[in-house]
Amino acid sequence: xxxxxxxxxxxxxxxxxxxxxxxxxxxxxxxxxxxxxxxxxxxxxxxxxxxxxxxxxxxxxxxxxxxxxxxxxxxxxxxxxxxxxxxxxxxxxxxxxxxxxxxxxxxxxxxxxxxxxxxxxxxxxxxxxxxxxxxxxxxxxxxxxxxxxxxxxxxxxxxxxxxxxxxxxxxxxxxxxxxxxxxxxxxxxxxxxxxxxxxxxxxxxxxxxxxxxxx
Length: 215
Ligand SMILES: Nc1ncnc2c1ncn2[C@@H]1O[C@H](COP(=O)(O)OP(=O)(O)OP(=O)(O)O)[C@@H](O)[C@H]1O
What we know:
Blueprint: E1 4-14, E2 17-27, E3 31-35, H1 42-50, E4 57-65, E5 68-69, E6 80-84, H2 95-100, H3 109-122, H4 138-151, E7 156-160, H5 168-185, E8 189-192, H6 196-202, E9 205-208
The chain binds adenosine-5'-triphosphate.
């Protein structure tokens, strides 16, 4: 099986007019960086891929994940992980319970706990499992949100300005963790960013979306 995320003849329409067009293959472990001016349609493209497109838009074309056509599947059945800049943690749950949410079922309680603790160590948050999210800094919350996504065992990763709230040092660390994990787990990554450093760190292809309805 060819592990990849393929956007085949994707065209998103608004009010019946083409907004953006994308035709691209992202191989497992590679990152495609999507840039372009504000409002061009970058987040809309991600919503089409996750199956959460607003009814204001019409998505055409196909999304193939690891060779399977997932275009018509409901969002929860696509197994795509997405990380936003403002990812919120559930405030009424501990950090550990936030991480457990969305983790595939199976395994003993102690195996699940060990996975959560290893995940926290990976993002430099050892011993944070019992903490209340309200006591975390913005950067710490972002790292928990990243690990929550990774622990859900996604088959592809989408990043929507995911690092922009982190300071420079933390940004580089979290970014490296994402790209390293994607390579280890052979996951294709699509990253939306305005930041040239993010694009450079990803090391893959960069495309600039243009707004077709303004041309
Ligand atoms: N629910 C909606 N209904 C109608 N139009 C929308 C809706 N959501 C977004 N839009 C419009 O669709 C266009 C694309 O929006 P989108 O959020 O995808 O842009 P973007 O490239 O991600 O922008 P930014 O870089 O500012 O986040 C914009 O003109 C936006 O105003």
